[in-house]
Every structure is written in C-alpha cells, then in structure tokens.
Amino acid sequence: MQELNFFTKEQLHGFVKARKGETKLGEKINLYEPSNVRKLEEQKKKGARFAILGIPESIGALGNFGRSGSETAFNAFLNGFLNIQSNRFLSGKEFVLFGEIKTEKLQEKASQLKDGSDFYHQKLHVLCDELDELVSPVIEQIIALGLTPIVIGGGQNNTFPILKGVSAAHKLKKGLNCINMDAQADFRSLEGRHSGNGFSYAKQHGYLNKYAVFGLHENYNPEYMLKTMGADETIHYQFLEQITYLDKRLIESIGFVYHDVIPSGVELDLKAVRMMPASITSPSGFSLEQARHYVRKCAEGLNVAYLHLSEAAPQNPFEEEVVGKALAYLVTDFVKASLEKGI
What we know:
This protein is α/β, with parallel strands linked by helices. The protein is built from 12 helices and 10 strands. The protein has helices at 9-15, 37-45, 59-63, 73-81, 104-112, 120-144, 159-170, 198-205, 223-230, 246-257, 288-301, 317-341; strands at 4-5, 30-31, 50-54, 95-101, 148-152, 176-181, 208-216, 235-239, 264-269, 304-310. Strands 1, 2, 3, 4, 5, 6, 7, 8, 9 and 10 form a 10-stranded mixed sheet that branches. α6 (120-144) packs parallel to α7, α7 (159-170) packs parallel to α8 (198-205) and α11 (288-301) packs parallel to α12 (317-341). The longest helix has 25 residues, at 120-144. It is globular. The mean pLDDT is 96.
C-alpha cells in the first residue's frame, strides 16, 4: 500500500524503554508486513485482533479554524502505548501496528500556506480532500484482512474517509451507524472538507446511517446545525449540560445506534475531555475517567466496526506525555472490554 509508512523492528525498539525483569507491550506487539500475508494469519491465530493506524496530520483542524499539533498525537501515543506493561491484562499480541498514513507531502503544502492569505481555508479544504483519498482504501484493506481498525491522530475530518472505507468493506448500502463523544457535532455545512463536517459529508454520501453525538456543549454548536440535526430522525444528540447521570444518558445514545447487523463506529474527539491538549482545549468537559468509561461501554454494547481517537494536539513535551498516556488508556480500555465480550 503506497499510502502507508510501515514500522520496522528498529523503529519499534526506539520507542520502548526496556527494563530488566519486565516486558513492555512494545516488545510483544505485532508488526504488519504487507509482503507476508501468511505471517499475519499466524499472528491472528495467536490472538491479533486490532490494527493500530496513525494519521499524523493537522490539515483538517487548520481548515476548521483550529490549531496545529494533531500531527504529533500518534507519535505521542506510541511513546505511551508501547511502554505499557505486557501482563495478564494485555500482552501486546492482540495488536498489529499497521503503520501510518503518508501525510508528509500534504502537511508540507499546508505549512507553506499563509494564514490570512487569499483562499487560505479553501486551499486547506482541497488538501483535506486529497487526504481522504489516502485514508479510505487503507481502512477498507484493514477490515478485509480481518482486523478492527483503531485510528489515532489527526483531526475528526478523518471520520469521513473512515466511514467510507468501512462502508465499502462491509458493503453497506446505507452506511454504518456511529456514536461520537464530542463537544461539537461536526455536522457543519458542506463548504469544503475540514474537521468540522466529517459527519455531514458522510451523511450526504451515504456512508453514515444513524448518528448519536454525546456531550455537546450548548455554547459551541451553531443553531443552523442543531436545526438540521433535529429535523433528521436518524440523528440523536445530548448536551453535556443535560447529563446528570452519565450511564443513563450514555445507554440511551448506545441504544440509538445499536443494531444486530449494522456495525457501529466509535468516535471520541479529545476536545470533549476537560483540559486535554487538543486542537481546541476546553476548561469544561468530561473527565478522562468518564471518557474511558464511554469507550468501555461502547465496546461492550455495540457491534463495533472501529475506534477513532481524534483531535489531540500536544504542543510541548509535557503535553505529549499527557496525550500519549491518555490515548493509551483509551485504547487499552476499549480492547479489554472488546475481548471480554468475545470479539
């Protein structure tokens, strides 16, 4: 796959902080080798179920009047995730480190654009279109190989190509269902691709069937978008300000997208987590513990097609450590709950 950068054992060892008498998850994780399909089949027989895919980009966030930084989230995640202990709870063999989307050229083009120049955001929207074309075939391929995608990094613009790839892989004529923990619904106008309209574009193209968004902030969702969603019976949303009992409200949202046959995507925009370094950081939101509870409940209650953790945007070494560990917690919680359910 020309869209991907693959990892080598040498690169993997560069992340792992080895310690005598201990085994880190990064010492046990599987690497994807596109030329060796037989090896992947052997890895699956030994328990590999989940493919880790990185998208190191901030094009979508910049195109949505956000800030850069989300291009570094995947690297921060790897530093945290690969140094988790391999133990009775997770060994590392459950995962295949699939690779990362080749975003370098697109990121370089985006960095050369000057904010405030003529058609600045429109040019970013065009680059986001190009990014979509890189992501969707990789998602389709991961599912064809019998693995569940876990997508890290970049903006929530990548929801659109993920839904496109999953719909194609599962041959879903009306698309799949999706639940999203988010401060904003990302159902903005079809004004050119960016991180604020991944779901609306997916709906228009038939890749999104039912959509539940959990934890919206009353202050940051435009009225036209709320009216559009309110008029659509396939969309369900709940505001953070209305959530008194988390489980009760979350069960409602999960129940809305649940289907015996149609799979569901699980989305978590890190902007929804209070004080998380993200493309927009908020002093109000869910705690990390509540976000962890969300991914566990989704894994337990849904026929999950993928997990997507977006919008984390660390700006310095301290924030990279916070983001890396937060993303690692969310991934491991999701996988543990999935395995306990018997996926």
